Amino acid sequence: MRSQKSPPRQLRKLKPSEACDQVEELRPSVCSACGSPLSGSDARPHRHQAIELPPIEPVVIEYRLHQLSCPSCGHQTRASLPAGVSPSGYGERLSAIVSLLSGPYRQSYRQVCGLMEDLFGVSLSRGAVGRLRAEMSEALSAPVAAAKDYVQSQPVMHSDETSFPQGNRDGGNPNRTKGWMWVLVTPLVSFFEVVLSRSQQTAKDLIGEAYSGIVVSDRYSAYSWIEVARWQVCWAHLKRDFTAMAERTGVSNETGKALLRRQRRLFRWWHRVRDGTLTREQFVARVAYLRQGVKTIL
Q: pTM for the complete prediction?
């Protein structure tokens, strides 16, 4: 049986003493060996820090909207909520926590309600959670659109998709169609979108039919509309295919092993580009030679 190395132990970093909320100096009063009294201070005492969360109490602000009658015409006018105060009755931080639990942490409506009650003492209905999520989606629509525009303007993007459970709590999926999480990845920005489709049209809408850069993806048919010169098949998938060929017998075995050798060589060169021991121009020249070798093998 192959032994697996344990991951290295991670020690918690101590905060600087001056950044602590409270520092307590603990000195022994007697010797633990003979019982003699002790006095003085240790120049380098052992430091132990205990982290605790403060009691969390929700802040409730009541706005009293007075309605007054006009002495001239008798019309009644009611005061309006201050700017930034949501008519839903929930503040920005609370909405952000609900969205964080619902999105990155993928908690269900029921779980979000339970966590908000247990952690913050805030009672929410599942309908309220749905409304807060919809409000947050609308509030983030502009930066999300900007992120999509950015990735579509980059010379290279990676695209992938995976199944993503979708219900109909917000009424947007009455047929309970299977959802798909699509992602477009660039060095600085990654764009995610849940769509009720894995079709080619969805890929066109996300990537952009007019996109002129290079798309890196698997060989899923939704990407087949992209010109071959602009479609880079993911090397992880290619390596998997080459390995499968090498595990066969006969000509397939020889071909797969030859392709794997060239794959390893390609990435050795690329790692040298990354660490600065090979220029990009030298890399491009070598790749041209390697590409010809791959074509000869095939």
A: 0.74
Residue 193 DSSP class = E
Number of C-beta neighbours around residue 77 at 10 A: 10
Domain containing residue 197: CATH number: 3.30.720
For the chain, how many structural domains are there in total?
3
**Residue environment code for 251-265, b if the CB has 16+ CB neighbours within 10 A, otherwise e:** eeeebbebbbeebee
DSSP assignment of 108-134: -HHHHHHHHHHHH-----HHHHHHHHH
pLDDT tens-digit readout, 88-123? 899 999 999 999 999 889 898 999 999 999 999 999
- Please tell me the distance from the alpha carbon of residue 113 to that of residue 123, in angstroms, as a whole number: 7
| pLDDT tens for each residue of 49-59 | 999 999 999 99
Question: What is the span of the domain harbouring residue 159?
Answer: 142-232
Q: How far apart are CA 37 and CA 43, in angstroms?
A: 19
Q: How confident is the model at residue 3 (pLDDT cuts 50, 70, 90)?
A: low
Written as six digits, the tokens of 9 are 């132990």
